[in-house]
Write a structure and sequence with these properties.
The complex is a heterotrimer of chains A (227), B (243) and C (483). With 243 residues, chain B is α/β, with parallel strands linked by helices. Chain B contains 13 helices and eight strands. Chain B has two domains: 4-118, no CATH class; 123-239, Rossmann fold, CATH 3.40.50. In chain B, β7, α12 and β8 (229-232) form a beta-alpha-beta unit. With 483 residues, chain C is α/β, with parallel strands linked by helices. Helix content of chain C is 50%, strand content 11%. In chain C, the strands form three sheets. Chain C has a six-stranded parallel sheet with strand order 1-10-7-4-2-3, with helices on both faces. A four-stranded mixed sheet of chain C has the order 8-5-6-9, sandwiched between helices. In chain C, β11 (437-438) and β12 (441-442) form a beta hairpin. In chain C, α3 packs across α13 (247-262) and α17 packs parallel to α20. Chain C starts with 7 loop residues before the first helix and ends in a 5-residue tail after the last helix. Classes of the chains: A alpha/beta (227), B alpha/beta (243), C alpha/beta (483).
Chain lengths: 227, 243, 483
């Protein structure tokens, strides 16, 4: 059935009259943002944009300061159980041990063998999800997460609090380097890439805006000078 | 000075001839003596908008026969000029000879304020009016022809007149030709809103460049606010010419 | 979704006096429009950005069959199953059969106009499957069985009391409340259980990328991400015009879509799927089925005069500037698509005859064309539909104008081309109209213009036309007098 439909549709499109008149002239694609690549400026622009969409921004020096900030956030949000991605930012930090030390159960994808148990933990148990980020896009205040086993999708979606950590050198101006790295390089394309710009939001009831519709109510981004 | 040929819309000919007279008076005061081809009637917009293209094409051909050789054609209506300059090219696409004539004529056809400001290079026509004036931006003129600054320049140059801002000046008044009769409730909602904005603006008179919009807005004012007036640009300027 | 395009006039009458509708129309479109303008003004070169978008859409439509094949190749290579459907029936059948085969008991759906067009939810429910709309606005319209009020806010006009009551009845709301935020949280709690349980997630597609086989969704709530993370099966319905050539094209269109729809530089969540989950991944669908839907689009494509309708990216910028939509809201358009883009799309998918009021009720103000980032000339297409309906067109299902309409315009055309007949017509019109004159104006007259007089007067027709007066005017000019 699908094969017949395919042939039917494609032949109708291919034989449509008035095609082949030449492609429209493409105007040169202008940049959608206009600032340079100076690191401090990019980070500050990212901060402004993130805060503009009700995200929260913190800046720390190093791993030690990061852990102090995380502890503060966990306490303020009553976090007892969390799930952290095992991505290129967080995996080397060995946060599970640190978390246990402050009485927080921190699990990672390695602790789960089956998707059902993982789903249960993310939907029913985790008070927070922790991730790194592949890129931070300054022009829009956006986190880029390329999902794989380590960067499971639900970690940044199901819990009410999402904390994202990234070193400052992952901040870029806009989408071009992100597209180049994830979709135009020789590596394999992620099964899913998510671009996150602020916490979950809606204004569908009487145009009254609020956060935390289906995704996290709070999004916190911590940029570290070095990790 | 090129000969200026008058293109008088059907609605002006039949219902509002004083707009035509005012146009002539204004042009004449500025040193232009227009000619008027008596065979002219209508650009065909009415039938084209209703979907009757065969009939509209015949009217377009008639129009081209009447005006085709003129160097400059001036019309006190943006929608008629939009029809001739833009819609004729689609309407006549199957008749290459007439399409060619339409293409050649198009750049020579001007809406009145376009002509005054852009060709005659006049902004001050010698009019005086002490009071506040608001301006309604007719859709065909604004969005079809891109004419917006010219009428405002003319109004600002009227000695003693104050051009006041009017909210939603560029929102449709709800005329749309047949739309106003075929969908009267929607049309009424739009013209009522336009009238309310006019009243809110504090202007003494509402000026506009489109006979269709004028009929619509004046018709509503006559029924609901009979002491408030809307005027065509040509009439507003011609009436207030200093002697 | 039920087709109610032929109830336009009666629905208009209701909506013009509906206080909730009028309250929202009084600010919602204006706010969206202002946000769009503000965000575009913040770009270094907004005109170039919009021109690029229009060029991308023009190329996408011009190269459509090649791009669809390229998309299919790449999506399949990434592990997706690409299925083609000629019409809604074929698409619905595939999805229902799939759900039955995979023993799906519960489906969660993201906001998708194309699935409304298909009536997919109703078909799945007929097959005994539980289906939940998960976008908050669509969840509300599902529970209340209402059509969408606006593409961006489908239930934005619904009073809180109505939502409170229906949530209490059907969505597990325990503590009655009129607070929109608390109502929202109640919906979150209720739908979270569905996200957890659902075996299948159904989404539309905002943009499909030919060069990588990627499908893209953008949203603010996170419900679409849920539909693509929890369930084992993901079905993404791709209406076949949504494809673009490259990932850069796609990102540009994504930015333009967000800016033109809500004034956001980017929606809260944009998720790009290239195939199902990979081996070892803990979430995401095991199977990704992409259903390519025609349902009248190849027919629109085959006519060079209607092909441009396929450029639409469903940003709804046109709704927010349309003076007619601004008075009547979404309901009168009677189907999945409303506003100017509904006036352009519904007639092609449903036929000209049953949508006559949609393209009839337009003042041709051209604001839609000016606001459209995809370069669609709505007024030109609306005029085309009117001409095909007047003439009769079997392809487009236009039945032809009634004899009276044809006769009127033939007569008018004759009068226009014959000055003597014109003069006679002028006399007749004057006589016919001025019979109803009182105090220099006409306040009531039966006949085709009867609607005019409900709220307006006309001046009496003058005794002499401009034609009649010209001789005198010319004499005055010759004498050098002021006319």
């Amino acid at each position: 059935m699908s094969a017949d439909a395919r042939e039917w549709i494609l032949s109708r499109l291919r034989s449509a009259p008035g095609r082949g008149q030449g492609l429209p002239q493409r105007p040169p694609l202008p940049p959608l943002s206009a600032f340079g690549s100076e690191r401090a400026l990019l980070v500050d622009t990212f901060r402004q944009k993130l805060e503009g969409v009700k995200g929260e921004f913190h800046q720390v020096e190093d791993r030690r300061a990061l852990c102090a900030k995380l502890e503060e956030l966990f306490k303020a949000n009553g976090v007892r159980r969390a799930v952290a991605a095992a991505d290129s930012v967080l995996a080397p930090l060995d946060l599970a041990r640190w978390a246990a030390g402050i009485g927080v159960e921190l699990r990672t994808p390695a602790d789960f063998t089956d998707p059902a148990a993982f789903k249960e933990a993310l939907f029913r148990e985790a008070d927070a999800g922790l991730t790194g980020a592949n890129f931070l896009m300054a022009s829009t205040g956006t986190l880029v997460l390329a999902h794989d086993r380590g960067q499971a999708r639900l970690i940044s979606l199901a819990p009410i609090l999402h904390i994202a950590v990234a070193p400052a050198d992952r901040v870029v101006a806009d989408y071009e380097p992100v597209v180049a790295a994830l979709y135009e390089s020789s590596g394999s394309i992620p099964s899913q890439t998510t671009f996150i710009t602020g916490p979950s939001s809606t204004a569908d009831i009487q145009a009254t805006p609020f956060t935390g519709m289906h995704g996290p109510r709070r999004l916190v981004v911590i940029v570290a000078a070095r990790l | 000075m090129k000969k200026v040929s008058l293109f008088i819309p059907c609605i002006v000919d039949l219902l509002l001839p004083e707009i035509g007279e005012a146009t002539v008076r204004l042009l004449s005061r500025l040193g232009v003596r227009p000619v008027y081809h008596a065979d002219q009637t209508c650009c065909g917009q009415f039938s084209f908008n209703a979907g009757f293209r065969r009939e509209a094409a015949r009217m377009a051909v008639h129009f081209l026969e009447v005006f085709g050789d003129d160097e400059v054609v001036v019309c006190p209506s943006g929608s008629c000029v939009n029809m001739v300059r833009n819609r004729y090219l689609e309407l006549l696409e199957d008749e290459p000879r007439w399409l060619d004539r339409a293409r050649k004529l198009a750049p020579r056809v001007y809406e009145l304020t376009e002509f005054l400001v852009g060709v005659l290079k006049v902004e001050d026509v010698g009019a005086a009016f002490s009071g506040k004036v608001a301006y309604h931006e007719s859709c065909s003129l604004l969005n079809g022809l891109g004419v917006s600054e010219q009428p405002k320049k003319l109004l600002r140059a009227v000695r003693g007149a104050e051009l006041v801002p009017m909210r939603d000046a560029d929102v449709c008044c709800g005329f749309g030709g047949e739309f106003s009769s075929r969908y009267p409730e929607i049309s009424e909602a739009l013209v009522a809103a336009k009238a309310a904005r006019f009243l809110e603006s504090g202007a003494d008179v509402l000026v506009l460049c489109e006979p269709g919009c004028l009929t619509n807005i004046s018709g509503y004012l006559s029924r609901h606010h009979p002491d408030r007036k809307a005027l065509h640009m040509a009439e507003f300027l011609a009436r207030n010419l200093a002697s | 979704m039920d087709i109610k395009t032929d109830r336009f006039r009666e629905t208009v009458r209701k909506e013009l006096v509906n206080p909730e509708t009028q309250k929202f129309l009084g600010f919602f479109p204006l706010v969206l429009s202002a946000m769009r303008s503000a965000t575009l003004a913040g770009l270094p070169d907004s005109e170039a950005a919009l021109a690029s978008a229009a060029a991308i859409r023009a190329e996408a439509v011009e190269r459509l069959p090649e791009l669809l094949e390229e998309f299919e190749r790449n999506a399949t290579a990434a592990g997706a199953r690409v299925v083609w459907a000629r019409d809604s029936e074929e698409a619905n059948r595939y999805i229902c059969d799939l759900a039955r085969e995979k023993k799906v008991a519960c489906v969660t759906k993201g906001k998708s106009m194309v699935t409304e067009e298909m009536g997919l939810r109703e078909e799945l429910e007929k097959a005994g499957i539980e289906v939940w709309e998960t976008d908050l606005g669509e969840f509300i319209t599902q529970l209340l069985d209402l059509p969408p009020f606006h593409i961006i806010g489908p239930a934005i006009n619904v009073p809180v009391e109505t939502i409170r009551d229906i949530f209490h009845e059907k969505a597990g709301l325990e503590e009655p409340t009129n607070d929109p935020v608390q109502l929202g949280y109640a919906a979150r709690k209720f739908l979270r259980e569905k996200f957890y349980r659902a075996e299948m997630g159904v989404t539309g597609v905002n943009i499909a990328v030919a060069s990588t086989g990627t499908v893209i969704n953008v949203e603010n709530e996170g419900n679409i991400r849920h539909c693509k993370s929890g369930p084992r099966i993901q079905v993404s319905v791709l209406s076949l015009e949504k494809v673009v050539p490259t990932m850069r094209d796609a990102f540009h269109m994504l930015r333009v879509l967000c800016m033109c729809a809500t004034g956001q530089s980017l929606g809260t969540y944009a998720s790009f799927d290239t195939g199902p989950r990979k081996a070892g991944e803990l979430d995401g669908p095991e199977e990704l089925h992409i259903v390519l839907l025609d349902n009248g689009r190849s027919a629109a494509y085959r006519n060079p005069k209607t092909r441009d309708a396929l450029k639409c990216i469903r940003c709804a910028a046109c709704l927010s500037v349309c003076p007619v939509y601004g008075k009547i809201g979404g309901y009168p358009y009677g189907w999945a698509y409303s506003g100017p883009m509904g006036q352009v799309v519904n007639p092609l998918l449903l036929g000209l005859d049953r949508t006559e009021d949609l393209y009839g009720a337009c003042t041709l103000c051209q604001r839609c064309k000016a606001a459209c980032p995809a370069g669609i000339d709505h007024p030109r297409m609306i005029l085309y539909y009117r001409s095909r309906q007047a003439e009769g067109d079997s392809e487009l299902k236009g039945k032809g104008a009634p004899w009276s309409g044809k006769a009127l315009h033939r007569f008018y055309s004759a009068a226009v081309r014959n000055p003597a007949l014109w003069k006679a017509m002028a006399k007749g019109l004057r006589w016919a109209a001025n019979r109803y004159e009182k105090d220099g104006k006409i306040s009531k007259a039966p006949g085709p213009a009867e609607g005019w007089f409900r709220s307006r007067d006309l001046p009496r027709f003058p005794d002499r036309t401009f034609h009649d007066r010209w001789k005198e005017i010319e004499k005055t000019l010759e004498r050098g007098e002021k006319p």
